Amino acid sequence: MKKIIITVILCFYLLPLANFSKAEDKEDLEDQLRKIFAGREMNKIEGLWITRKDNEEENRIYLIVKSEDYLFEEVVISHPIREFEGEISTKLLKKIDEKTYSTKAAWLNDGKRDERNGTIKIIDKFKLKFETTRHCYSSEKNCLKADKFYKKKIWPGKTYADEVGLSKDEANILKNFLD
C-alpha cells in the first residue's frame, strides 16, 4: 500500500515536469515508476532530483536511493537518451569527507554502457554538484572531457525549517513543541 501511495505522489510531482507529447509517454513514465519501486522499501528513497544540460530540450530526472551494493544509487526516471531510463546511472561508492562522495557515472561508448570516475558534492539539502573526470577509452578514440553540472532536489520539497534556515536541533525543538 505504501508503494502505491508513494508512486501516486511521485507521479503527481513528475507528470507536470515532463514534456509529454502523447498519452503513451505518460503511461510509459508511470510504468517505469512501478518497475523502479517494485521490491523497494520506501524509507530507502533519498529524493528525486532534476537537471538539464544546456543543449537539451528536456529535463533529466533521477531518483537517489540507498543501495545494497554501494552507499547510494541514482536511478534514471526520465532522460533524453531513453536507453538510460530505469537504469542505474551513478553509483556513490564511498564518502570522501562530510560533503563529498566518490562515484562511478554511466556513459554510452559507441552504444555500449561504460563508467567513469567522478564525485558528488553536497552544496545544500536541495543542490548537488556532480563532477566527472576526463576519460579515454583507448588511444584510438576521442576522450570524454571532464564535466560538472548541478542537480536540484524536487521531492521531498522544502519544509518550513528549510525555508527559514533552522538547524536540525532547532527543527526538533520546534517539532516537539508543536507535537
Descriptive notes:
With 179 residues, this protein is of the alpha+beta class. It has one domain (44-178): Lipocalin (Beta Barrel), CATH 2.40.128. 26% of the residues lie in helices and 39% in strands. The protein has helices spanning 2-17, 23-37, 160-164, 168-178; strands at residues 45-51, 60-66, 72-78, 88-97, 100-109, 112-124, 127-132, 147-155. Strands 1-2-3-4-5-6-7-8 form an eight-stranded antiparallel β-barrel. Residues 1-22 have low confidence and may be disordered.
**Main sheet summary:** 8 strands, antiparallel, barrel
At the third CATH level, what is the topology name? Lipocalin
Name of the CATH first level: Mainly Beta
C-alpha-based Rg, rounded? 18 Å
Which descriptors apply to this entry?
Lipocalin, 179 residues, alpha+beta, 26% helix, eight-stranded antiparallel β-barrel
Short description:
The protein has about 180 residues and is α+β, with helices and mostly antiparallel strands. It is about 25% helix and about 40% strand.
Give a topology summary.
Elements: H1 2-17, H2 23-37, E1 45-51, E2 60-66, E3 72-78, E4 88-97, E5 100-109, E6 112-124, E7 127-132, E8 147-155, H3 160-164, H4 168-178
Antiparallel strand pairs: 1-2, 1-8, 2-3, 3-4, 4-5, 5-6, 6-7, 7-8
Helix pairs in contact: 1-2
